[in-house]
Structures are given as structure tokens and as C-alpha cells.
Amino acid sequence: MDLQFRFAIVSDPHIALPHTIWHHPSRFHLVEISIPALEVVFEELAQFDLDFLLLPGDLTQHGEPENHQWLADRLAQLPYPAYVIPGNHDVVEQFATDRSIGLLEFPSYYQKFGYEVLEQPYYTCQVLPGVQLIGLNSNHFDAAGKQIGMGYIDETQMAWLRQVLTQTSEAVVLVMVHHNVIEHLPNQSQNPMGRRYMLKNAAELLALLDEAGVQLLFTGHLHVQDVAQHQNIYEITTGSLVSYPHPYRVLEFQQIGDHRQLQIQSGRVTAVPGWTNLSQTSKEWMGDRSLPFMVRLLTEVPFNLPLAQAEQLAPALRYFWADIADGDACFHFPTFPPEVNQSFKYFSAIDQQGNPAPIDNFAILRL
Q1: How many C-beta atoms lie closer than 10 Å to residue 45's C-beta?
Q2: Start and end of every Calcineurin-like phosphoesterase domain (predicted)?
Q3: What are the residue ranges of CATH 3.60.21.10 in the chain?
Q4: What's the pLDDT tens digit per position in 213-230?
């Protein structure tokens, strides 16, 4: 069966109507530009003949009902279908509060965008003949309904997924989940700062997907442009629309006979009204808030530096996270101690021989 289709990804848009915006001095993302940036993306996507759009979570600033409603209304105006899943910012607690919706309310806002069964926060649907989408919920809560840091696919959902994968007859299965399943940073699952962006039972999910022959995973949450691989499975994580470099993706899948490939292109929002030099402004915004983050990074595994040494080195890392978010970065800090410099090289987009291997923004994946 020959197949060809084109779709886009917009992740972590953190939609915030102006009257709902609340300020935090250390936040990296610019929710102030969430709506105009989304409109710019929709204008730029109009040049493509898209079959559908994926939004892998963190749709809203912090789960506000009016922000969910605004986005649902706006997505309904698109000339192509859109599909969403909840991120940790969309259902900040299991049950609704006076400020945010609860997990069970989420599907009712997005009935037109995947959730045909309103009683469960995950779904599967045929997006095109021969193409099936599975949208998972990776938010997890304790007995009091408070959100747990790492993502998790609970036993009920995992059993449902196993049944769906057993019964599907579609040629291509796409899976969308908010938390990372494959590591996008060195030893991410072991690092206290990185593992909170990951799925706690990632190994179980990967084994299930691998057994079913699923090759494509789409995630968000980490706010970086990155493509990672585990055996035959690729995970494409897309950076946040409201964080530097304000990216989105356009992807084209093609199957001719036994040959399959996915072509990835990435775009950037570089200006919105009132923010004519958005890229530079946003990078500096992130750099201004990076020092405590970098000090913590240097004092924890794998670096484990004394606090005084970490504070001395941290200013040189002002743009480190911005460069990670941009994708395809290569790092070399010759003034750092050799072992520290070597550890930073592992964050680079390089192959096993140490050569540059850009794949995060533009690539053709042979499946």
C-alpha cells in the first residue's frame, strides 16, 4: 500500500488570554505572545497542503477554562483536522479548581480533536485511510489528586493501548504523548533535573510499541527541538511555541512499496506584533533567567561540582539551554576543566565518531 501525507506539529503553545496571564520572575516561556505566535504559525502553515495538525500537550498556560475554550474554538476554524492531548499544564490537578479544569473535563473541550469517548482522557482514531493516531494521557496524580512530577501511563490505559495495537489493521500508527519516552539529553532518566520530563514507565511503553511495530512517537514538554531513537522507534519532540526558538514542524510521510520515510522540516516564529525581534529578545529572556538553572546543573550528576566552582563556570553557560532548545547544537568550552568540557560534548548533536550530525530540525528518517 502506497501512502503519502503531510502534517504539522505545534507543541506547548501555553495559550493565555491577556486577562489570564500571571507572572513568575523565573519562567522561561513568554506566554504573552502565545496567541499572536499561534496566529503567525497558522498563517505560515496555510502555504502547505496539510492533512492534519498535532498538538502534543501544554495547550494552555495553566489549565484555565477560558484558555481551553479559546483554543478549541480557534482550532475548529482550521481547514484541516487537529488532534490534541493533555500536558501537565492543562490539568494541573486531577480535579477541577476555581482556576483550572480537571482531567475528566479535558475531553469535553476537545470532542472535535480526537476525543470521541468523553469518559477517558486518551483515544485512537483514523486520521486518514491507512493511518491511525493514538493520543495518550501521561499525567499522573497521587491519592489527593495532586500532580506527580514524572509522567506515567497507568495500568488501565496500558491495557487499553495493548488491545488497540493488537486490533489495528492500519498500515501506519502514530503515537502522541506529552512526556518524553526516549532520552533527549544524556542520562536524562537518571538526572534529577531531566527525569521529571520523562515517562516513569517508558521502558514498558517502548517494549509494547516495538512489539507492535510502531516507529513514530511525537512528544513535547521538554521545550527543545530534538529527534531521538530507540531501536526502530523515533521520538520527535518539538519545542514550545512560547519559548526560544518558537518552533513548529511540517512533516511528510511517504511509503512506496516497502520503503518508508519521514521528512522533517522546522519553522520559527521570528516576530509578532510588538515583538519585532522576537528571536533575540526571547534568547536574552532565557539567558537572563538561566544562572540558577546552570548552577544546579553543574552541582548535580553527571558534573557534581562544588558550589563555588559551579558559580564560577555558570555565566559561560548563559545560552546553553537556548542552544539546546534550538536543536543541533555542538558544545565546546575549552576554558572549562577537561572532564567538564568532555561531559558537555555529550549534549552535542554528534555521531559516535564525534562528527556533527544535525537531525533535530531538518532530516529524512528512513523507517
Answers
A1: 18
A2: 5-224
A3: 3-268
A4: 999 999 999 999 999 999
Distance CA 44, CA 30 (A): 20
Please spell the DSSP secondary structure of 261-304, one letter per residue: EEEEEEEE---BTTBTTHHHHHHHHHHHT-HHHHHHHHHSTTT-
Any alpha helices (H) in 16-117, and if so which ranges?
34-45, 65-75, 106-109
Q: Which residues of the chain have pLDDT under 50?
A: none
Q: What is the number of helices (H) and of strands (E) in the chain?
A: 10, 12
Nearest Cα residue to 232 out of 258, 253, 212, 202 = 212
Query: Given this model, what pLDDT does residue 27 score?
Result: 86
The C-alpha cell 482531567 sits at 103
Interstrand relation of 3-9 and 52-55 (parallel, antiparallel or unpaired): parallel
Instruction: Please tell me the pTM assigned to this model.
Output: 0.97
Say which CATH superfamily domain 3-268 falls into.
Metallo-dependent phosphatases (3.60.21.10)
- Cα separation, 55 vs 178, in Å, equals 9
Q: Quick check: 206 and 248 in contact, CB under 8 A?
A: no
Q: What average pLDDT does the chain have?
A: 96
Non-local CB neighbours of 1 within 8 Å, separated by 6+ positions: 130, 171, 255
- The Cα 226–Cα 101 span in angstroms is 30
* Gap between the Cα atoms of 60 and 75, Å rounded: 13
CA distance 27 to 314: 18
What whole-number distance in Å separates Cα of residue 319 and Cα of residue 176?
30
Residue 36: which residues within 8 A CB-CB, separation 6 or more?
272, 273, 274, 275
Identify the CA nearest to 244 among candidates 4, 27, 19, 73. Answer: 27
CA atoms of 362 and 338, how far apart (whole Å): 32
Q: What is the DSSP string of 239-261?
A: -BTTSTT-EEEEEEEEEETTEEE
Grid cell in block for residue 136: 495518550
Non-local (6+) Cβ contacts of 79 within 8 A are none
